[in-house]
Amino acid sequence: MGTFVKISIVSILVAYLAFKWTAPRFDPESLKGARVLVTGASTGIGEQMAYHYARFGAQIVITARREKVLQQVTEKCLSLGAQKALYIAADMASESDPDKVVDFALEKLGGLDYLVLNHIGPTPFAMWEGDMEHTRWLMK
Questions:
Q1: DSSP-assigned states of every residue in 27-46
Q2: Residues 69-99: tens digit of each pLDDT
Q3: Separation of alpha carbons 121 and 102, rounded Å
Q4: Fewer beta carbons below 10 Å: N end or C end of the chain?
Q5: CA distance 82 to 34
Q6: Is 28 exposed, middle or buried (0-12, 13-18, 19+ CB in 10 A)?
């Protein structure tokens, strides 16, 4: 086999592997019906994250301190296509509110698939794997 053929084969293989590794892997259908909790969702990044999940048809629970603003965000989430959009006014700096929020989300959604923790507070970085006690700890 000639040098040109070998280089061509290797080039094609490298191009194919590069395409496979860099090709988008996100499946929008994976968020349809997903159960999502977004904290700090009354404005800014948290609000926009709620809208993002809503466009994909997720079931969303949002929380922040200002109930009136949460009502408006919830209404917009529903208009954008959320399967379900609920809110609970809470202060994540409070001792009891994080538990209240998690319990509300579990009761209304039957579980959680995604957490968007957009409230301020120190937390070590780690992947969430569905542990509700760990979730309560993260929220505090």
A1: -GGGGTT-EEEEESTTSHHH
A2: 999 999 999 999 999 999 999 998 888 999 9
A3: 17
A4: N
A5: 10
A6: exposed
Q: Is the pLDDT of residue 136 over 90?
A: no
As a whole number of angstroms, the distance between CA 131 and CA 111 comes to 11
Please give the angle made by the CA atoms of 50, 62 and 97, to the nearest 5 degrees. 150
> Which tokens is 32 given?
């349809």
- Nearest in space to 137 (alpha carbons), one of 89, 105, 102, 107: 102
CA angle 77–136–133, rounded 5-degree value: 120
The residue assigned the tokens 């019906």 is 33
Nearest-angstrom CA–CA distance, 41 and 39: 5
Let me know how long the chain is. 140
The three state secondary structure string of 66-135 is CHHHHHHHHHHHHHHCCCEEEEEECCCCCCCHHHHHHHHHHHHHCCCCEEECCCCCCCCCCCCCCCHHHH
Contact (Cβ atoms closer than 8 angstroms) between residue 58 and residue 81:
no
